[in-house]
Each structure stands twice: as C-alpha cells, then as structure tokens.
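Subject: design request, 75 residues
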C-alpha cells in the first residue's frame, strides 16, 4: 500500500472518530492492513508464490482472531 493510502485511511478514521464511530473500526482496519502487508512479505520471500494454500484467506482470519483476543483480554 502506498503512503497516500495510509494517510487517507488515517484521515478517514480521524473523521469517523470525531463523528462517534466505535473503536472496533480501528481494530479491523489495522488487522486488514497488517494482513495485506504480511501476505506480501511472505510472498516476497517465497519468490511470489504462496507458502500454503488459501494464504490470502487464512492470514486475515488468524490476525482477526488474535486481535479479538487481545481486545477482549487486554483492553
């Protein structure tokens, strides 16, 4: 993702926060961005191929599950 995308998403989150949108949106957004970056990172080190089947599906689900656990037990 490009720096302009991060700035746009961050600005949108700031506006949403001022409008009273719940913080769950922030957790979901961070999870999606981190899963995209992690998928590209794993593909880069494996020469453009997925390490395992359904990598683009498994990574976001696992990261979402981890973020839910962190939010439930630490926040």
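Subject: RE: design request

Done. Sequence follows.
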């Amino acid at each position: 993702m490009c720096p302009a995308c991060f700035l746009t998403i961050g600005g949108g989150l700031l506006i949403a926060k001022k409008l009273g949108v719940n913080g769950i949106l922030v957790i979901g957004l961070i999870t999606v961005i981190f899963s995209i970056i992690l998928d590209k990172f794993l593909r880069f080190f494996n020469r453009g191929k997925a390490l395992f089947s359904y990598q683009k599906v498994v990574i976001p689900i696992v990261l979402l599950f981890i973020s839910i656990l962190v939010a439930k037990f630490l926040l």
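The two ends are 28 Å apart (CA to CA).
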